[in-house]
């Protein structure tokens, strides 16, 4: 994106832990005319993830404290101060980076402040989304709809959000609860949010979550705990954010 372009500057954040096999292909497929910078957060990798990312044009940030959310937080801290929108994308090549344009469109058109790339609504390669992931998605999104009246179909990591909206959320989770925390806080704040269909394929390499029993159980427990925690906080009337932040998000969400 050129400096003279009047569109908001977009940064892409890619958390990565031992993803040397996929991160280069992800970076090669990102439509660079749509974004101003790509940040790969090397989350303590023991392989060549960081070297591959640099060779394929990304700025690499190192975060040794393990955890998906921790890596995302490090990426946010490293963003260009002028960037107004952030896209989160995984490094395993399961999502199609070329669809960044579609994910950004509702924000650029003024129809939403946050967009979830829904794998459920899109085309999926057979076996790409594990049964435990499909079950967890259904359970979590059903709970969000029941508790806050906001409809989501997926907790997919491929998403875009306005930077000021993200700042108002005061994101805290450092691991498996990151995506659901963002969606719950969007519900609490009344953030204008929508979903777009994205395609999904088998990832390159082994999943750190659904690829192990520990990861699957840990992710499931953390997701349900996060939903329960914010339900209790909300019922107790606690203020998650400043009055100024709440005033920014008085519009009804798009579902």
Considering the chains and any ligands shown, give keywords for the structure.
alpha/beta, Spore Coat Polysaccharide Biosynthesis Protein SpsA, Chain A, globular
What does this entry look like structurally?
This protein is of the alpha/beta class. It has one domain (10-248): Alpha-Beta Complex (Spore Coat Polysaccharide Biosynthesis Protein SpsA, Chain A), CATH 3.90.550. Helix content is 39%, strand content 14%. The protein is built from nine helices and seven strands; from the N terminus they run βαβαβαβαβαβααβαα. It has helices spanning 23-29, 49-55, 68-77, 100-108, 131-148, 163-169, 178-189, 213-235, 243-248; strands at residues 10-16, 37-42, 59-62, 85-88, 114-118, 159-162, 193-197. It has a seven-stranded mixed β-sheet, with helices on both faces. β1 (10-16), α1 (23-29) and β2 form a beta-alpha-beta unit. The radius of gyration is 17 Å and the shape is globular. The two termini are 30 Å apart. Residues 241-255 have low confidence and may be disordered.
Largest sheet: 7 strands, mixed
Helix share, percent: 25-40%
CATH-scheme architecture: Alpha-Beta Complex
Order of strands across the main sheet: 3-2-1-4-6-5-7
- Per the CATH scheme, the topology name is Spore Coat Polysaccharide Biosynthesis Protein SpsA, Chain A
- The portion of residues forming beta strands comes to 5-15%
């Amino acid at each position: 994106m050129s400096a003279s372009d009047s569109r908001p500057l977009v940064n892409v954040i890619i958390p990565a832990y031992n993803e040397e096999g996929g991160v280069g292909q992800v970076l090669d497929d990102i439509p660079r005319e749509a974004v101003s910078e790509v940040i790969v957060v090397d989350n303590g990798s023991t392989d060549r993830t960081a070297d591959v990312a640099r060779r394929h044009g990304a700025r690499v940030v190192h975060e040794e404290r393990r955890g998906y959310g921790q890596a995302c937080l490090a990426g946010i801290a490293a963003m260009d101060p002028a960037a107004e929108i952030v896209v989160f994308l995984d490094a395993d090549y399961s999502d199609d980076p070329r669809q960044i344009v579609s994910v950004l469109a509702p924000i650029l058109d003024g129809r939403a402040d946050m967009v979830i790339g829904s794998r459920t609504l899109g085309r999926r390669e057979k076996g790409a989304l594990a049964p435990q992931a499909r079950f967890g998605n259904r359970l979590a999104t059903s709970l969000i709809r029941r508790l806050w009246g906001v409809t989501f179909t997926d907790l997919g990591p491929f998403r875009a959000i306005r930077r000021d909206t993200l700042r108002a959320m005061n994101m805290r989770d450092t691991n498996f609860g990151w995506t659901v925390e963002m969606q719950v806080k969007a519900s609490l704040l009344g953030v204008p949010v929508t979903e777009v269909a994205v395609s999904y394929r088998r990832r390159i390499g082994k999943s750190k979550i659904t690829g192990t029993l520990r990861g699957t159980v840990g992710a499931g427990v953390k997701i349900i705990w996060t939903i329960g925690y914010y339900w209790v906080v909300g019922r107790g009337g606690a203020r998650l954010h400043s009055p100024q932040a709440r005033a920014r998000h008085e519009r009804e969400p798009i579902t």
